[in-house]
Design goal:
Blueprint: E1 5-9, H1 16-26, E2 36-40, H2 46-52, E3 59-62, H3 79-84, E4 89-92, H4 95-100, H5 105-117, E5 121-126, H6 130-134, H7 138-150, H8 155-158, E6 162-165, H9 179-194, H10 198-203, E7 206-209, H11 217-221, E8 228-231, H12 238-248
Parallel strand pairs: 1-2, 1-8, 2-3, 3-4, 4-5, 5-6, 6-7, 7-8
Helix pairs in contact: 1-2, 7-9
This protein binds phosphoenolpyruvate (PEP).
Length: about 250
Amino acid sequence: MRMPLIAGNWKMNGSLALVEAFGRAFADGALPVNVEVALMVPFPFLEAAGRALGETSVTVGAQTLSDRPSGAFTGEVSAAMLRECGARLVLVGHSERRTLFGEDDAAVLARVKAALAERLTPVLCVGETLEEREAERTEAVVLGQVEAVFDALDESERARLEVAYEPVWAIGTGRTASPEQAQVVHAAIRGCLARYDQALAGGMRLLYGGSMKADNAAELLAQPDIDGGLVGGASLKVDDFLAICQSAG
Ligand code: PEP
């Protein structure tokens, strides 16, 4: 049985006041006990989020990291720094990193390895563009992104990842994949993982991301291969995010 994971991705949004508001709202046992919850906040809020959410079950994470351990890389943040500031998860390969910051599969793999080396859990994001979907290349693109990372890891490393399927055309657009569309791709990813190891495939949580909201989360999460959500916009409002977490419970 895979415990659902709902992870909020604040992107370059939020404030210290919002961190405090989440801390207050979640402190009183509001979150379901059978759901893991994480918040991926901007770097400067990591420590404050750790303090504000310290009495809750919420895990704090980051949204990207450097592929280098240290050195003359102005503006970059290493995995060790994230860990020291309280992050336990980190998004890798989010489509905004791939498209806006030119991170290709090799860059994504290097960041996964950097995260693993510091015992951070990489949440590997994969997904196709609208053009790729319309050209019926969804599976080839998504499985290619999965294999680019999983091929290069050993058995114990593979088991330490989370995978998020995020169709690029559904991120921040209000256009959600239908539960059936999402399930087809999730099942394909699980099938791909089974080629490495059946136990890996059976245990791996596959999150859906792309305009997940309080009113569509339940039907997405009811799909057999959807084990949680990566939530952007709706993770910036306490009540909306709480409702999504509750629908996973
Ligand atoms: C995301 O940023 O990962 C995401 C899924 O965003 P949204 O929920 O706003 O589509």
